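Renewal narrative, Specific Aim 1. Our central claim is that a sequence can be written position by position from structural information alone. The example that follows is taken directly from our test logs and has not been curated for this report. It begins with the structure tokens describing the chain, in the order in which they were read.
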């Protein structure tokens, strides 16, 4: 489903070129659960932005379902982000004056999907939070806000979820609850790509990409690393 070959991203800062990602190469089939790890500045966020079609590479190829991302128009990239990819962030990124249900409806409204309220409620129920549908983010705990963010990410039934440090602002117990949701989504066939600094969180995945200085220095199954 995801095929990346010699993917590079270079940013120009004044007269200096900074290589944020260097020759990344890997392939993942539908339904994988991948943890992307590495220190700050290792290229994790750059890679996630490219995989999420939020940015384009400087060179190399990224094929999603066999389609080359680089050749797509901005409108086509926006459609892919809305239909195929769900995003979950450390800081939740919820609209403060909108209810949980209204936050979840947003991707459906952008795509002009009928029965948006019903589908949003179904997604909220899927993360076990339907009773909090009318509450604003300020009335929810951190774990509840992240559940709302996950429901928003899955409301369009994407094939891929990109999660950037989704447990970073949560206590360990709540973090485990959130990871159990990702595990169930993965069992249901959703590919999960997860950025994390925490080895305990990475253990929920089946595959790990370890990054350093813009390069992938390890690409292995979790079981292989354990042995």
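The sequence written for that structure reads:
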């Amino acid at each position: 489903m995801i095929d990346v070959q010699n993917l590079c991203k270079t940013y120009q800062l004044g007269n200096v070129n900074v290589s944020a990602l260097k020759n990344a190469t890997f392939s993942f089939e539908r339904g994988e659960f991948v943890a992307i790890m590495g220190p700050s500045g290792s290229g994790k966020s750059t890679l996630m932005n490219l995989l999420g079609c939020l940015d384009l590479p400087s060179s190399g190829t990224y094929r999603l379902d066999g389609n080359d991302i680089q050749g797509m128009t901005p409108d086509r990239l926006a459609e892919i982000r809305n239909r195929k990819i769900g995003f979950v962030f450390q800081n939740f990124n919820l609209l403060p004056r909108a209810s949980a249900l209204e936050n979840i409806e947003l991707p459906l409204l952008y795509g002009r999907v009928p029965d948006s309220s019903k589908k949003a409620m179904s997604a909220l129920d899927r993360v076990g939070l339907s009773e909090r549908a009318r509450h604003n983010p300020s009335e929810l705990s951190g774990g509840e806000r992240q559940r709302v963010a996950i429901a928003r990410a899955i409301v369009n039934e994407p094939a891929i979820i990109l999660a950037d440090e989704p447990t970073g602002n949560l206590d360990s117990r709540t973090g485990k609850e959130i990871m159990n949701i990702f595990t169930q989504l993965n069992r249901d066939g959703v590919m999960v790509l997860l950025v994390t600094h925490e080895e305990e969180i990475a253990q929920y995945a089946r595959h790990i990409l370890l990054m350093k200085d813009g390069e992938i220095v390890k690409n292995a199954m979790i079981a292989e690393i354990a042995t």
